[in-house]
Specification:
This protein is α+β, with helices and mostly antiparallel strands. It contains nine helices and four strands; from the N terminus they run H-H-H-H-H-H-E-H-H-E-E-E-H. It has two domains: about 170 residues, Isoleucyl-tRNA Synthetase, Domain 1 (Orthogonal Bundle), CATH 1.10.730; about 110 residues, hypothetical protein PF0899 fold (2-Layer Sandwich), CATH 3.30.2320. Helix content is about 55%, strand content about 10%. One of its GO terms (molecular function) is ATP binding.
């Protein structure tokens, strides 16, 4: 036996993290209509009779499959530290920080418009799958919290009901969900978002939602940015995102009055600060430094 250097502050931190799990389930409950029925079969990408999944949903399912594979492999090797770290990462950085935030504007879509009802249904189904499977993955490490939260999720109407999460099968990876290319694209998007958040912090922007211009000299990256404007606007707290492909020529230029940060060798972010900040005041701040 050996002594363990236990930091009580970490215990308190993980107690707060339990509140985050509760809030994720509560968010789902608020966005699942009373008549909501979970998917009767595992979600299959592009399967007949199932709605096409939006890009964030396909990304989350890929991350969920990877989390299942990593956790099972770690448990089989008795590597509990790696298992808990991967679980924490999935819940914290993938479900809560990204998917739930991106889901909010999707839930505000008007269902009277063509296709919006299917998008909302697919988004809800993906959240339910991520929460239900995620709780079963987490159960060996947090049995009481996961049992309580799992019982609050709606259960499929078909098949024999499972009375407790303890009796539910432990999750395994779903290779059909794996999408390494989409995960790589989201890694790139997260790099852009982190840079923009840093730029907002430099200018002490809190509630303001400026227009974001992204200049990409790589056409492939420009295409990724173009089809991800919803995620970029939501996660960077921007009013609008405009993607400019600099290979198109001089006409693809952001307006004057922007704060600028370099994301990588092919991407530059321009945050429109004109009308939000006083240039004279900003110059005075720099002179004081």
């Amino acid at each position: 036996a050996r002594d363990i250097n236990l930091d009580i502050k970490r215990v308190v931190s993980y107690r707060h993290w339990c509140n985050k799990l509760y809030n994720a389930i509560r968010f789902a409950s608020l966005n699942f209509p009373p008549s909501y029925q979970p998917p009767e079969q595992p979600l299959q990408l592009g399967a007949e009779g199932q709605p096409a999944l939006p890009q964030p949903a396909r990304w989350l399912l890929s991350k969920l499959s990877g989390a299942c594979a990593a956790v099972v492999k770690a448990l089989e090797a008795y590597d509990f530290a790696t298992a808990t770290q991967r679980l924490y990462s999935f819940w914290q950085y993938e479900v809560c920080d990204v998917y739930i935030e991106v889901m909010k504007p999707l839930m505000a879509l008007d269902e009277s418009h063509a296709g919006n009802a299917e998008v909302k249904r697919a988004t809800r189904d993906t959240l339910w799958v991520a929460l239900e499977v995620g709780l079963r993955l987490l159960h060996p490490f947090m049995p009481f919290v996961t049992e309580e939260l799992w019982q609050r999720l709606p259960q499929p109407a078909v098949g024999q009901p499972v009375p407790s999460i303890m009796l539910a099968a432990y999750p395994s990876a779903t290779p059909a969900w794996d999408n390494p290319q989409l995960e790589a694209e989201y890694d790139y998007l997260n790099a852009v978002i982190n840079k923009v958040r840093g730029l907002r912090n430099d200018y002490s922007l809190t509630k303001q939602r400026p227009h974001l211009f992204l200049v990409a000299s790589d056409s492939a990256k420009a295409a990724v940015l173009q089809r991800s404007t919803l995620e970029l606007a939501t996660l960077s707290t921007s009013s609008e995102v405009t993607v400019l492909d600099s290979s198109q020529g001089a006409s693809s230029s952001p307006p004057l009055g922007c704060g600028v940060c370099i994301v990588d060798d092919a991407t530059v972010a321009h945050l429109l600060l004109k009308g939000i900040l006083d240039p004279a005041l900003e110059v005075a701040k720099l002179q004081k430094k």
